[in-house]
Specification:
alpha/beta; Rossmann fold; 7-stranded parallel β-sheet; 11 helices; 7 strands; 44% helix; globular; binds nicotinamide-adenine-dinucleotide
Amino acid sequence: MSEFDFNGAHVVVTGGASGVGAALLDVLDELGKPRVTVLDINQPSGPHSAYIQTNLADPASLDAAAAQIGGPIDALFNNAGVADTSQRDIVLAVNLLAPIRLTEALQPKIRDGGAVAITASVAGMNWPQRFAEIQELLSLDGWDAKSAWLDGRDLGVDTYSFTKEVMQVWTMRDATRLRQNGIRINSVCPAPIETPLLADFRETIGEAGIDFGIQHSGGRPVSPREVATVLAFLASPAASFVSGQNLDIDLGFRASLATGMLDSSAVRASSSGKE
Ligand SMILES: NC(=O)c1ccc[n+]([C@@H]2O[C@H](COP(=O)([O-])OP(=O)(O)OC[C@H]3O[C@@H](n4cnc5c(N)ncnc54)[C@H](O)[C@@H]3O)[C@@H](O)[C@H]2O)c1
């Protein structure tokens, strides 16, 4: 059996009914047919062993789902997400509060050597601009305290991007705590992906902003499978010494901004519809 193999493993996937999560069910099936429990508001159609209908915007629904999942768990994929076409409270809950709460709820059932993988986004690349506030938020215990901190606050950026900034910082921050339990945590940060959510981003970010991102990350959207294979790798024993990493899946888009090969003012102009 290779280190990339999920044979005999128990895996939990959120958002497995569509897009990246649906592609992940196929990839995992090809990588050894693990036992897969899907948490989603919608019924998945891809290969899975158990489906627990869950509204991740509702902590009671999340807790009830987590309680139904037996251990040991080898890998938890926090993948479900929504765009700013949803209400602010829902975006904050599904994209930010839920992954943290689900990870904390399932952590005692994740085995030593297990892994957590998160679908973050290239939209979260500007986390250093809000690092102090994000640290303050992440230092608060529990859903209610974090909700109260977020309530009505000017986040300094659109809600969706803020949630993905927090996911990147949380991935780095929680690596230390989880390592003490033998658990790794990593995220993927994809450029626009060819999923139903992309139409929502075209509405919220604007055509110019999305097309700019696509143009400078390979000329086409990432496929859901190209994200799912990286997620599977990060959660597999093949990545056994990798933790606290936010792995861009963008054909060098963020790297080109970081090194000045691409002018970041062009991104701002495109997002404000000027390009
Ligand atoms: N599509 C993109 O361009 C893009 C880019 C970067 C990152 N991402 C991230 O990829 C992840 C997967 O998104 P996708 O593009 O596959 O979108 P998608 O809409 O195809 O899939 C999202 C899944 O999440 C589920 N979901 C939504 N709200 C839920 C809720 N309240 N409770 C339970 N499940 C819920 C949906 O039913 C669906 O199965 C998200 O975290 C998203 O932010 C997407």
